Amino acid sequence: MTLAVLALTVALLIPLYGAAKDQDVWQKMLAFASIATKTSILILMVSVLRDDWMIGMVGVLILSLGNAGLMLLAHVLRRMDEGI
């Protein structure tokens, strides 16, 4: 199981590289959404390994609410680009 956690950690670094390399705001937001999802899955795996449901609840909250805040930010940025 620790191999799976290590693989998820390495997979987490791929969007970080993409976000640092690209200058487009939308591509950066997509990379950050991917990071949030992978982080929450990593937290869920750690909670299963430790048999700790409180850590699992934090992972579920990040998974369900983290991307909602990112989508609200994307909507605000789109409105600012339109000039409304």
TrEMBL record:
Keywords: Membrane, Transmembrane, Transmembrane helix. The chain crosses the membrane at residues 30-49, 56-77. This is Sodium:proton antiporter. It comes from Prochlorothrix hollandica PCC 9006 = CALU 1027.
